[in-house]
């Protein structure tokens, strides 16, 4: 098992023992999470792929790994082309590929705790063309051959105080109970870890970079709830916080409990719940009602306390990032710094705030050609030295009890080329266009996406990732349901109207394969805006993130007067807000880097 080739061979042997002609390995867990615990990193263990989204299919004589445009370069760098075919989505789906490659009458295995019911139905239908069958497995064959598979985390739950949440758990559960009454349902199953954390005002440490606990919850029409979690995760403080209205059960009792809803209507979110959940409810005589998780939109629309908390988190995070940007501008040209050392230094500055709980994701610390990999993951083996003539890209964020941050900046090491400045300025123009957008209620992120791309399109350029994603409040750095992306972007789902209180990223980019990457990312808060003489209350964005945008990469001749005014106003706000948080040379550097451009 010391090589990925050996692991693939071992999986094929295991499939033969389980009488399967293939198996599908997604990168997710039993909660359909984007970021998963170490025990659920089956795709990485099998293939070596370190991205945050992907799927593998293993057949007796061939194997394929499916990734979207964010990982086109990364997957080829990390996964052996001798063992795996590289397939792009959404151009080709896993189901369509199976229909063209599975053997006639074959048995294709899947883990019903790792796929949605919609995917099972889609794949089953696709396989009909070759009379093949999708077969649920009781034992995941990857787990069967993974000798040192990490144990599930035993981190304890903690209370997320109402002072940071802005609403009590009892209030949130009452709203869900009213919703159940409106839907004429008896209960709703919550499988999303973020939903459970938000609803019960608890946090955990089971998933790296995301403060959630492995658990399930059932909320009943009377406002009570049943929480299924490993007993060792509970503390007396959490028990008192939950109160008598939340009954706590061993997580191993969840699957059997699904069979106890005979004669009842149970709401299940089909996009956030694995197939095993509705199948078990129906097997026990319950009626499954496919409805969106009722906590998703309330969780995404931050209340005034959460908004104020994020503003505070943005100030301390911006001060830490500014210290880092000064440090990298001085130290990198001297030589001796690497992608890993730079990421470690930024984490050090964030930890010096004294209140950092964790990073919000593994920093994308990328220099030169690695910058052209949008979701590059630096390792000991891949870390490159940061050298003159390169662009260094750092995409990072922090988890604080009052907010989750995510920001990207690019620093030239030495003098940038004219092309670099042109591309950077076009990305900046798109960033400004989105930041200054004004739009009516009912507008979706898909409708705004082109604003960020137009300056690139006008030069025959584009970028292969979404322009913006939702961000949680001391929760996941990637949060639905809203996003800013092309309608065809992988995972976009139905168009979602932007609502006041939503926090989304604004991160257009440009990537030149093998040479450099550019991305400028701030977080935006959707706010209401009125106009004198206007007939409607409109929506707009408040930029939350505070950090200087590198002036040496900006070709001001390409900026319109309005764009230049926005940039100077933004930098004035950055300097005015962050300067009091900094001292000495850090403060002087910030003020100089935020001086107006002409």
Task: Provide the CATH top-level class of the largest domain.
Answer: Alpha Beta
Q: What structural category arises from helix and sheet content?
A: alpha+beta
The pLDDT mean sits at: 96
CATH superfamily of the largest domain, by name, is: Creatinase/methionine aminopeptidase superfamily
CATH topology of the largest domain: Creatine Amidinohydrolase
- Physical arrangement of strands within the biggest beta sheet: 4-3-2-1-5-6
- Integer-rounded radius of gyration: 24 Å
Q: Tell me how many strands there are.
A: 28
If helices are DSSP runs of H or I spanning 4 or more residues, what is the number of helices? 19
- Our measurement of the CA-to-CA distance between the termini, rounded to an integer number of angstroms, reads 60 Å
Q: Number of domains in the coordinates? A: 3
Q: Helical residue percent?
A: 25-40%
Beta-strand residue percentage: 15-25%
Q: What is the assembly state of the chains in this entry?
A: single chain
GO molecular function: metal ion binding; metalloaminopeptidase activity
Organism: Sphingomonas mucosissima
Domain Creatinase N-terminal: 7-137
Protein name: Aminopeptidase YpdF
Describe, in plain words, how this protein is organized in 3D:
By secondary structure, the chain is α+β, with helices and mostly antiparallel strands. It has 3 domains: 142 residues, Creatinase/prolidase N-terminal domain (Creatine Amidinohydrolase, Chain A, domain 1, 3-Layer(aba) Sandwich), CATH 3.40.350.10; 138 residues, 3-Layer(aba) Sandwich (Creatine Amidinohydrolase, Chain A, domain 1); 293 residues, Creatinase/methionine aminopeptidase superfamily (Creatine Amidinohydrolase, Alpha-Beta Complex). Helix content is 34%, strand content 20%. The chain is built from 19 helices and 28 strands. The protein has a 6-stranded mixed beta sheet, with helices on both faces. The chain has a 6-stranded mixed beta sheet with strand order 12-11-10-8-13-14. Strand 2 and strand 3 form a beta hairpin. Helix 4 runs parallel beside helix 5 and helix 14 packs across helix 15. The chain is globular, with a radius of gyration of 24 Å. InterPro entries: Creatin/AminoP/Spt16_N, Creatinase/aminopeptidase-like, Creatinase_N, Pept_M24, Pept_M24B, Peptidase_M24_C, X-Pro_aminopeptidase_P. Keywords: Aminopeptidase, Hydrolase, Metal-binding, Protease. Belongs to the peptidase M24B family.
């Amino acid at each position: 098992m010391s090589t990925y080739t050996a692991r693939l061979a071992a999986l094929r042997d295991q499939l033969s023992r389980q009488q399967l002609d293939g198996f599908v390995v997604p990168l997710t867990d039993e909660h359909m999470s984007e970021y998963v615990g170490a025990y659920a990193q089956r795709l990485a263990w099998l293939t070596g792929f370190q991205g945050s989204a992907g799927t593998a299919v293993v057949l007796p004589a061939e194997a394929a790994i499916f990734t979207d445009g964010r990982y086109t370069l990364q997957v080829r760098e990390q996964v052996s082309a001798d063992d795996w075919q590289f397939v792009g989505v959404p151009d080709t789906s896993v189901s369509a590929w199976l229909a063209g490659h599975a053997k006639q009458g074959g048995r294709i295995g899947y883990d019903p705790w790792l796929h949605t019911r919609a995917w099972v139905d889609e794949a089953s239908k696709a396989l009909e063309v070759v009379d093949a069958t999708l077969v649920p497995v009781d034992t995941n064959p990857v787990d069967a051959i993974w000798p040192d598979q990490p144990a599930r985390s035993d981190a304890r739950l903690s209370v997320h105080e109402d002072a940071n949440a802005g609403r009590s758990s009892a209030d949130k559960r009452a709203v869900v109970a009213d919703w159940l009454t409106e839907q004429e349902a008896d209960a709703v199953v919550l499988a999303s870890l973020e939903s459970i954390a938000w609803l019960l005002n608890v946090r955990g440490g089971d998933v790296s970079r995301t403060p959630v606990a492995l658990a399930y919850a059932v909320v009943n029409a009377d406002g009570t709830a049943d929480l299924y979690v490993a007993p060792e995760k509970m503390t007396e403080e959490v028990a008192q916080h939950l109160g008598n209205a939340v009954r706590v059960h061993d997580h191993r009792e969840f699957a059997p409990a699904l069979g106890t809803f005979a004669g009842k209507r149970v709401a299940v979110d089909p996009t956030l719940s694995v197939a095993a959940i509705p199948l078990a409810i129906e097997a026990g005589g319950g009626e499954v009602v496919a409805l969106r998780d009722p906590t998703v939109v309330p969780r995404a629309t931050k209340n005034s306390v959460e908004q104020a908390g994020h503003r505070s988190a943005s100030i301390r995070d911006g001060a830490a990032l500014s210290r880092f940007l000064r440090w990298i501008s001085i130290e990198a040209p001297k030589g001796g710094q690497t992608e890993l050392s730079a990421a470690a230094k930024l984490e050090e500055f964030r930890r010096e705030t004294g209140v950092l709980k964790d990073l919000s994701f593994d920093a994308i610390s990328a220099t030169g050609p690695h910058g052209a990999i949008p979701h590059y993951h630096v390792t000991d083996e891949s870390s490159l030295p940061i050298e003159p003539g390169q662009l260094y890209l750092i995409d990072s964020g922090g988890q604080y009890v009052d907010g989750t941050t995510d920001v990207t900046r690019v620093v030239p090491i030495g003098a940038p080329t004219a092309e670099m400045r042109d591309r950077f300025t076009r990305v900046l123009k798109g960033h400004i266009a989105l930041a200054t957008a004004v739009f009516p209620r009912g507008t979706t992120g898909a409708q705004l996406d082109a604003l960020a791309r137009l300056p690139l399109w006008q030069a025959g350029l584009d970028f292969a990732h979404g322009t913006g994603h939702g961000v949680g409040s001391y929760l996941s750095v990637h949060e639905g349901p809203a996003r800013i992306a092309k309608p065809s972007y992988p995972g976009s789902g139905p168009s979602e109207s932007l609502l006041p209180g939503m926090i989304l990223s604004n991160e257009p980019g440009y990537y030149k394969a093998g040479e450099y990457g550019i991305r400028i990312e701030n977080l935006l808060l959707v706010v209401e805006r009125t106009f004198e003489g206007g007939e409607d209350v409109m929506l707009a964005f408040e930029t939350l993130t505070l950090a200087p945008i590198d002036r040496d990469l900006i070709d001001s001749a390409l900026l319109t007067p309005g764009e230049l005014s926005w940039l100077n106003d933004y930098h004035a706000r950055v300097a005015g807000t962050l300067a009091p948080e900094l001292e000495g040379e850090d403060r002087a550097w910030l003020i100089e880097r935020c001086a107006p451009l002409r």
